[in-house]
């Protein structure tokens, strides 16, 4: 009996969609074959993890067998890790030891990455360098037009990040020049700004935390970085739990899962309980439906809703500042945070209630009127942020039409702001119900 063509093509489409969601195997790609061979030479035993391209997360690792809670995901031998020890045992070592004032562990690693990338075929780290991203989407790498569309608190941090890399570059020029004997080409062209930005982003987005003993040849900044080839292909999910540490017995960096994972599914690790602004700032991506996500309320926005005629305004602001209640004020999936409401209650204290401010910071209620006014102000701030976010999303869609070259960067900011809009709308709903309950 002939099968209907429609059913067959529907099945095929379904199968294709499933394989697309499960990830497209990349093990056959030359760069991964070379990387696996290189890792094997350094003592890495082939794991159940295979590189694949996933819809939504991009490049990652999937498992060829079902994983149970308590299973070892990956064990990467010390020889495979790139640390400051690696840098010191290279030809850069002698120059770093002699250089005064001492360079930071971070700059030493950046220098090594740039030098090895420049060496091309001659670099023993080439198989790893070949699979590293060519570009990054950390805020420091975004175009000014895109940075302007970030939420205000993140925009400020993005500009600080950019400034920090620029300062690192300026302060390192003399050190880079001192390396000239190692190169035939001018060090100014090798160690240029974009090379340093790439190296800095590689370390900032991909290193694992690993404490190293203090060395005299480095500045006092903590030496806690290690680049972990292959392991760094694992993507982040806020919904999984893992245990990760360097095992002194096996001399390997190990990751153990506390979650289950079905055969052929993408294996995730958790970089920490970060909100989306932090994920974008530090790693250059946004996680959809992130339970840790929140929208920040800046001190400027907060104070817009309080009369400058309030005689105790200055004292109230001073109290909030001294007790750290002018930062980390947020709206989340469950509405305004306790910190935000506490700050609003202090600012809404009537003159005769002012002496009770300590009780409020401890979580006490002073009056029903104070509680109601704090909730009412929270609703106004939430509405203001909703409108600001909607305006931002409108600007993004206009810029996407006008600037084709910025589409990828803009899509990232659009994801962030769309998620924030969802949080604010949920908070507005919660506040509406709370306000109804208290009236």
Structural write-up:
The protein is mainly α. Among the domains are: 82-227, no CATH class; 294-438, Alpha-Beta Complex (set domain protein methyltransferase, domain 2), CATH 3.90.1420. It contains 17 helices and 13 strands. The strands form five sheets. It has a three-stranded antiparallel β-sheet. It has a three-stranded antiparallel β-sheet with strand order 4-9-8, with no helix packed on it.
Structure characteristics:
set domain protein methyltransferase, domain 2, globular, 3-stranded antiparallel β-sheet, 11% strand, mainly alpha, single chain, SET domain-containing protein 4, 439 residues, disordered N terminus, 17 helices
Concise synopsis of the structure shown:
The protein is mainly α.
Overall spatial form: globular
How far the N terminus sits from the C terminus, by CA atoms, comes to 70 Å
Q: What's the helical proportion of residues?
A: 40-55%
Low-confidence stretches: 1-5, 14-20
Largest sheet: 3 strands, antiparallel
Q: Which structural class fits the helix and strand makeup?
A: mainly alpha
Query: Can you list the strand order of the major beta sheet?
Result: 1-2-3
Q: Which helices and strands appear, and what pairs or packs with what?
A:
Layout: H1 5-22, E1 24-25, H2 30-41, E2 49-54, E3 58-63, E4 72-77, H3 84-88, H4 93-98, H5 105-119, H6 126-129, H7 144-147, H8 152-178, H9 187-190, H10 193-206, E5 208-209, E6 225-226, E7 235-236, E8 242-247, E9 252-257, E10 268-269, H11 276-283, E11 294-296, H12 299-303, H13 313-322, E12 330-332, E13 335-336, H14 338-347, H15 357-361, H16 368-402, H17 407-438
Parallel strand pairs: 7-10
Antiparallel strand pairs: 1-2, 2-3, 4-9, 5-6, 8-9, 11-12, 12-13
């Amino acid at each position: 009996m002939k099968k209907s063509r429609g059913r067959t093509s529907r099945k095929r489409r379904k199968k294709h969609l499933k394989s697309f969601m499960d990830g497209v195997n990349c093990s056959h790609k030359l760069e991964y074959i070379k990387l696996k061979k290189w890792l094997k030479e350094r003592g890495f035993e082939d794991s159940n993890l295979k590189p694949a391209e996933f819809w939504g997360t991009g490049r990652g690792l999937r498992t060829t067998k079902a994983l149970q809670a308590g299973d070892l995901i990956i064990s990467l031998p010390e020889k495979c890790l790139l640390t400051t020890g690696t840098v010191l045992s290279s030809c850069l070592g002698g120059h770093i030891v002699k250089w005064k004032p001492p360079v930071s562990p971070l700059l030493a690693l950046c220098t090594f990455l740039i030098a090895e990338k420049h060496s091309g075929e001659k670099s023993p780290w080439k198989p790893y360098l070949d699979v590293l991203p060519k570009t990054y989407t950390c805020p420091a790498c975004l175009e000014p037009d895109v940075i302007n569309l970030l939420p205000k608190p993140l925009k400020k941090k993005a500009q600080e990040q950019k400034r920090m890399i620029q300062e690192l570059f300026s302060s390192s020029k003399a050190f880079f020049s001192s390396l000239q004997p190692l190169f035939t080409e001018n060090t100014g062209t090798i160690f240029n700004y974009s090379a340093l930005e790439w190296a800095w982003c590689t370390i900032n987005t991909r290193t694992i935390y690993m404490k190293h003993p203090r060395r005299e040849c480095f500045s006092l900044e903590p030496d806690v970085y290690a680049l972990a080839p292959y392991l760094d292909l694992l993507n982040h999910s806020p919904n999984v739990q893992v245990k990760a540490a360097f095992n002194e017995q096996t001399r390997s960096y190990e990751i153990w899962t506390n979650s289950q994972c079905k055969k052929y599914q993408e294996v995730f690790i958790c970089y920490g309980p970060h909100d989306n602004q932090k994920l974008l700032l530090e790693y250059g991506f946004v996680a959809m439906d992130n339970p840790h996500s929140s929208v920040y309320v800046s001190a400027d926005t907060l104070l817009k809703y309080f009369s400058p005629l309030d005689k105790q305004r200055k004292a109230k602001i001073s109290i909030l500042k001294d007790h750290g209640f002018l930062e980390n004020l947020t709206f989340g999936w469950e509405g305004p945070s306790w910190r935000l409401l506490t700050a609003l209650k202090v600012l809404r204290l009537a003159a005769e209630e002012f002496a009770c401010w300590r009780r409020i910071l401890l979580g006490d209620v002073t009056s029903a009127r104070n509680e109601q006014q704090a909730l009412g102000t929270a609703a106004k701030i939430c509405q203001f942020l909703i409108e600001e976010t909607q305006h931002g999303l409108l600007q993004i869609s206009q810029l996407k039409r006008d600037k084709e070259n910025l589409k990828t960067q803009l899509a990232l900011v659009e994801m962030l702001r769309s998620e924030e809009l969802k949080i604010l709308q949920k908070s507005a709903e919660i506040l509406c119900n709370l306000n109804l309950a208290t009236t």
